[in-house]
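Quick start: read one record
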Amino acid sequence: MKKENWINMAKFIAILAVMVDHTNGVLYTHHSVAVASYFSVSLFIFLMGITTFWSYERNVGNLKTKVIQKISAISVSYFLATAVYQVTAYHSFDFGRYVTALINFNASGPFYFVLLYIQLVFVSPFIFYLIKIIGKTNSKRFAVMNYIFVWGGVILLSYFTTNFTNILDIYGGGGKVFGGTYLILLYMGMIFAAYYRYFKADIFLFLIFLALAFGWWRFECHNQFAIDRKVPFGGGFNPPSITSSTMALLLAGVMFNFGALVEKNRVLRKYCGMWAWLGSHTLYIFLYHRYFLDFWLGRFKFLQENIWIKRAGYMCVMIFGSIAIEYLGYGLKKIYARQKTIVMEMTERIEERDAC
């Protein structure tokens, strides 16, 4: 199984959890369901650490360009999404209001993630080079000790940024320098990616991680984040506490080892291909699922008649509607590129004719 596939499947699990969290009181009311979704962004950031490290390994010597590309890509999508939300909400486009929403990342609740992502992308090259430098040491024991030492430094930095920094009162990790405790998960994801080849997926480990994840969820429901109120990071899940971070890491273990099960079953490979494809579109689902939830889905009365029809309908529209917007954007981009090429060719012909 390709290493990207299990990550995309894990991303889809994370985005499902995001949507479950945001539909609390709309599609369900049970507290235990809400608790089961609190790992979502923590899992995203751990996976981001993995994919970022692999991306940098393929582009060593050109990381500045890679960072600019990553930030530019999400920024363009964010600018357009903010405009869509503003026009839909106010039935007009006010540039001042638009700029204010951009700066405060509040056109929609989940948009704090954009600033969180940008901050982590900015700091990630430093972590990458640090991991590579430590990895070049001849003594594996010395390297492990250094990784642990750096991890301790990251924890201390995250403690400070979580408790003593604030960016424009933006929600969650987006409003903390370097994302607060999300930085710990980014670092752990990059370490995992650096030594990925040493980790072997196994069906037995899949069952162990699955049992641990279920047990931890039951513990969360009972403990109510009490464990986190006894440590410096405090209670809560954004930036993540020990409780939410642990759940995210356990589910990452579930999905990594699930890859072994998928690899050995042709039927599973077929269906999990669709699962992985959905997971590759999580950015747009993250940006636009609230667009459908907040502005459109409540208008369809037939979806309100049965709770299971409502759940299925809401989820499908939020997922596939967001992906449709993504493909619409790609289509418009291709049309623009084609028209630009035609105009350039016509300009060149006119210039050649005038030169003659």
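The chain has 13 helices and no strands.
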